[in-house]
Amino acid sequence: MMGSEGALVAAVLGDCVGGEFEGAEEVPLDSVLKHLDSLDEEAKGSGILEYSDDTAMARCVVQSLLTRAGFDEQDMARRFAKEYSASPGRGYGSGVIQVLKKLSSPQLRDVYQPARDQFNGRGSFGNGGAMRASPFALAFPDLSDVKRFARLGAMLTHSCSLGYNGAILQAMAVHLSLHGALELPQQFISRLISEMEEVEDDELTRMDADKPFCERLHRVRDLMGRNKVSIEEVISELGNGIAALHSVPTAIFCVLHCLQPRDCLPVSYGGLERTLAYCLALGGDTDTIACMAGAIAGAHYGIEGVPQAWIRCCEGAEDAVMSAERLYMLYHRPQHMN
Length: 338
Ligand code: F2R
Ligand code: MG
Ligand code: MG
Prior knowledge:
Layout: H1 2-18, H2 29-46, H3 53-68, H4 73-86, H5 96-103, H6 113-116, H7 134-139, H8 143-155, H9 161-178, H10 185-199, H11 203-208, H12 212-224, H13 231-238, H14 248-257, H15 271-281, H16 286-301, H17 308-312, H18 317-331, H19 334-337
This protein binds ADP-ribosyl-L-arginine and magnesium ion (MG) (2 copies).
GO biological process, one term: DNA repair
Family: Belongs to the ADP-ribosylglycohydrolase family.
InterPro entries: ADP-ribosylglycohydrolase, Ribosyl_crysJ1, Ribosyl_crysJ1_sf
């Protein structure tokens, strides 16, 4: 349960603190540390960091899973559309907006169709499915259900295999982390590779690329084995962009790299603070990479690893504690597990 709370809360924090640098090409570490230092002041009442589309959509996933006590694509799609129309200024991707508008039509028969129509029928490869995948990892006790529902949940907006397979990878990483897998980092990455070998052994995926996530995860493993890795090398090997392929493996690497103290980061930082700071220093899609890494790291360190001051100054962080508790209670009751 502590891991579930840590995962949902740290995902919100990653989104809120990462928003400051989203889209920046270069982010000096000094600016990151200054930004994170200022959270203590904001917690005293001088301001609140707003969440973006990452958290807005994850909250819809949580509410749908809680209300329907299972995966219900109609309900989830309706919630995405309603949330977008109530708060369109949360920084959504320019393509997904078309899907969200179509999902609000009462005439719509197949809720997966708008996503299939994206990008001339190719579907989106963006990380919007992955950024909201963590609640599936918290809810479903079996890994096979986590994979199945993370995929279906992502396909409501992302029908390209590069989009929904990124969501599966993210949800699996959170799920394994919740079950203590980060205690053995080498086994963790090997398990993700073997699971993705199976996920990507599929005709639709092969039409897009040859096991692209497996190939990236091998790069993560290579980087883990190196003594020194520069920010530039991480960006050139793994990416820091808006595509799921260029951000989900990167988030996983950030978590693994920051399991130990790093010379460039303050010794006063715990593992979660190190992870989020490191994600921000990469630049690019910082809110989303920090949101995804936050979920994986938060599952490992638990809610006790999350600084209280950061929770107080991020919109939606306190709600996330309660949502995680409710998801845990609902989905881990004996009758739900049978
Ligand atoms: N969109 C942003 N940030 C930039 C703009 C912020 C906003 N304008 C502001 O200033 O407030 N952040 C959020 O978007 C990412 C998630 O995006 P998602 O949900 O995947 O959206 P979409 O539109 O489906 O895909 C994103 C872009 O990727 C390119 N793309 C995707 N599939 C493509 C394909 N098959 N062919 C060509 N291009 C494709 C397009 O450029 C899409 O617009 C997160 O970072 C979230 O924080
Ligand atoms: Mg965002
Ligand atoms: Mg983003």
